[in-house]
Amino acid sequence: MTVLSRSVYVLAIVDAIIITLTSIIGYALIVPTVGILLAFTLPFIIISMIIYGLKDLYKIRKYSFKDIFILFEIVFIASFIAGTPAIIFYGLYGISMILFDIIFIYLGLLVSRIIYLTYKKFFKPVKNVLIVGAGQDGKLIAEEIQERPELGMRVVGFLDDNMNNIEEEDSSIPILGLTYDSEAVIKDNNVDIVIIAVKARMDGNILSDLAKGIPLGVQVWRMPTFYAHITHKLFTSKMAVNWLFYDFVRPKYIMYSHIKRVLDVISAITIMLITLPITLIAVIGIKLSDFGPIFYTQTRIGKFGKPFRMVKFRTMYQDKVDQTFDDDLEDISKNDKRIMPFCRWIRKLHIDDIPQMINILKGEMSLIGPRPVREEVDYKHEGTIPFWECRRWVRPGFTGWQQICSIDCIPEERLGYDLYYIKNRTLMWEIAIFLRYILKLLSGKL
């Protein structure tokens, strides 16, 4: 797979070396043999790197001063989770070793990031991008690149054979010529990446011009693919959704669907058993708050548009319950008087969502998928947002890719995240999404 930057992989390798060396030194102080040393250090390294990846340490992004503290938080959480066996077996010595690892891993990762950012700012060359097509799609991808300086890219201009686009040019980015001029434009502007953003199917002459004009070594991307790569959303155009359909009906997803269903059932039962003590406290607290019903149900839209009753713990006073309220689309203030005082912590920790395991067991929902919306909302968006109905191709989820990436987003953006999930879903990625959900929940970021 073509990547935007190999430097993040180098950063991950350096981090792995730092963790390896530090953990070996730390564990060597308390374990008696080499065999036991390996038994402790290998899981520590693997678990730490997994958590770092889930916490987006290797995602191309902006850095700020607060990342110094975020990095420490991540190292602290990862080291204590990965070092739990040492604490269990060695008690205070294990805790001392974990603190040793936290300090020196954090310092090592901090120094590596200072070096990495210095390299990016002063030494790494900026990649020049040429966009073929100066229409709406071309300008959209140009704006997305300009809004992400952390990508280290600069849009040098457009190529376009459409005279209407050339005559109506209103962008700060110039149109440098026709596709026939691609060879000269690429050479004169030292172009590293070419993005094809032509809406209609390109004819043979345009393809021949580009094939002749784009030298080897220059990366070529289709606009929807590049858009998904940098935004983690699907570009919702007719062509992109056509590609999504062909991906969706591939035979491999038959086996995937069966395995996913089995994992959903196992996960739902496991979550219900693990959270049973908290659930009992919530049930008693809700019942004693106003002696009303424990559960609150609301009609949501499921797979292929089939309505179902989604179950949650009731957190509002019985006479204040609003059937038109949608937690997934509307914010609610901490001081909202409709919420029972006891239930504020239930909402904060998302304990009110646990009864949705019942919906998963019934086959109405999945652990991972697009969050279900109310009937009225779904039908409204179906009439106003193109391709909204594609969200219904899969079971709605207890959590999903959109919740991980952006809690507050407009419906069009939400659709982009959901379709990106549908296109790229795999069992391993869904496990990663759920683990990221847990980490965000524990850190109070949901």
What do you see in this structure?
This protein has 446 residues and is α/β, with parallel strands linked by helices. The protein folds into 3 domains: 7-122, no CATH class; 127-230, 3-Layer(aba) Sandwich (Rossmann fold); 252-442, no CATH class. It is built from 19 helices and 9 strands. It has helices spanning 7-28, 34-54, 67-82, 84-90, 92-122, 136-146, 163-167, 182-188, 204-213, 223-231, 238-248, 252-274, 276-290, 344-348, 356-361, 375-384, 401-405, 411-424, 427-442, and strands at 127-132, 153-159, 175-177, 193-196, 219-222, 295-301, 307-313, 366-368, 397-399. Strands 3-2-1-4-5 form a 5-stranded parallel β-sheet, sandwiched between helices. Strands 6-7 form a two-stranded antiparallel ribbon. A two-stranded parallel sheet has the order 8-9. The longest helix is centred in the N-terminal third of the chain and has 31 residues, at 92-122. The two termini are 32 Å apart. The model has no long low-confidence stretch (mean pLDDT 88).
Any chance you could write out the topology, listing elements then pairs?
Layout: H1 7-28, H2 34-54, H3 67-82, H4 84-90, H5 92-122, E1 127-132, H6 136-146, E2 153-159, H7 163-167, E3 175-177, H8 182-188, E4 193-196, H9 204-213, E5 219-222, H10 223-231, H11 238-248, H12 252-274, H13 276-290, E6 295-301, E7 307-313, H14 344-348, H15 356-361, E8 366-368, H16 375-384, E9 397-399, H17 401-405, H18 411-424, H19 427-442
Parallel strand pairs: 1-2, 1-4, 2-3, 4-5, 8-9
Antiparallel strand pairs: 6-7
Output the keywords.
446 residues; alpha/beta; Rossmann fold; 3 domains; five-stranded parallel β-sheet; two-stranded antiparallel ribbon; 10% strand; globular
